[in-house]
Amino acid sequence: MVLRELGGPVRLEEVPIPKIGSNDVLIRVRATGVGLTVVIMTATPGRVTAYPRIPGHEVAGEVAEVGSEVTTIKAGDRVTCHFYLTCKVCPYCRSGRETLCSDFKGYVGMACDGGYAEYVAIPAVNVCPIPQGVTDLEAAIGADAICTPLHACREEARVGPGDRVVIVGAGGGVGIHAVQMARLCGGYVLAADLTDPKLEMAQTVGADELIDVRREELSKQVLAKTDGRGVDAAIDCVASPETLEACLRSLARAGRLVIIGSRPREVFKADPVFRVDAQWMLYRALEIHGSRYVSLAELAQTLELLRQKRIRAVVTRTFPLEGAEEAHQLHRQNALVGRAALIQE
Length: 345
Hints:
The protein has helices spanning about 35-40, 90-95, 135-155, 175-185, 195-205, 220-225, 240-250, 265-270, 280-285, 295-305, 325-330; strands at about 1-5, 10, 25-35, 60-65, 80, 85, 105, 120-125, 125-130, 165-170, 190-195, 210, 230-235, 250-260, 285-290, 315-320, 340-345.
């Protein structure tokens, strides 16, 4: 499924099987997650480095071929891949903060062709073996929609036993897994969204309380449900100025706001900047964290959680490869609950 212009549709085309370099692997794709991230990024100037481009970064399949220098992976292995193309040698990469790489090369599916295809070529250092007992579909969703909440909940929000946590956008592809991950960390989860199907799914996966933001302003509901104290952490997967400011008002003393989502001005046609009251932040000792994806180690840990059945991939719609644009349109309409995926047998 080929993208030929900024913000354009993806269309089915016949292209050659990718040629791999000496340090690459060729993956026969079996499942590819389809999230709002792809829709946003392909419409944001500068993210796609050249056209035509094949998007898709939540990839799982089996290795069909390995480059001459590759020794860590062999043909037939099942793998998923890391989203970021990083140098692996800068101080950030070597300290496990690959997402802050000082020589960042871009994203899989944006700076190189991705998984909306039968085959994809990926640097061998980016692939992660899929454990036995984890399906290709689970691994594909794990590669972003589940591992991103792992980092956000554990490292940024620092959710611990008994902590009260609000997840904004709780019924979306990342939010629905953030609900599960916050509970896995011991949190008491308030799930906020604005459609009945998304709220129902959040409840199904374990949300302790629901917040329907159509009924009353978010922070008012959070404070009412926490006896006026507020939450220890707010994880915002929507990241509009309105939700971010409401999250700050929802925090207890020493609370953490964690930003996962983004709303680029070029895509959403609105100012993404939100207001912060410095005095409020100071006297309540509040924190704001930007949570950027995960390390390779966290990706492997996510796959292990899937193997142990501690968390489940929530996929409510699957499509054949040629259905990618339909899935994108449903995302634009906010009509998908959880994650969608492309399946290839």
